[in-house]
Amino acid sequence: MSDSRTKRQTNAPEQAGEPQQRRTEMRVRPTGPIVPSSNVSGHALMCVIAIMSFLACLTLGGVSMVRATAQSWQSQISREITIQIKPDDSLDMEKALADARDLALTFSGTTDGKIVDRAATARLLEPWLGEGLDLDELPVPRLIIITIDENNPPDFASMRKALTETIPQAFLDDHRTWVDRLVAMANTTAMIGTGVLALVFSAMVLTVVFATRGALSGNRHIVEVLHFVGAEAGFVASEFQKHFLKISIKGAGAGGLLAALSFALAGFWQSRTLATPQTDQATALFGTFTIGYGGYLGIAAIIVVIAILTTLTARLTVMRTIYEIDLIRSDPGRTDLYQS
Amino acid sequence: MIHFENVGLRYGMGPEILRDLTFDIPRRSFQFLTGPSGAGKTTLLKLLFLSLQPTRGLIRMFDRNISSIPREEFPMLRRRVGIVFQDFRLLDHLTTYENVALPLRVRGKEEASYRADVLELLKWVGLGERINVLPPVLSGGEKQRAAIARALIDRPEILLADEPTGNVDPPMARRLLNLFLELNRLGTAVVIATHDLSLMDQVEARRMILSQGRLDIYE
Question: Which domains can be identified in chain B, with CATH numbers?
Answer without folding.
Answer: 1-80+157-219 (3.40.50.300), 89-155 (no CATH)
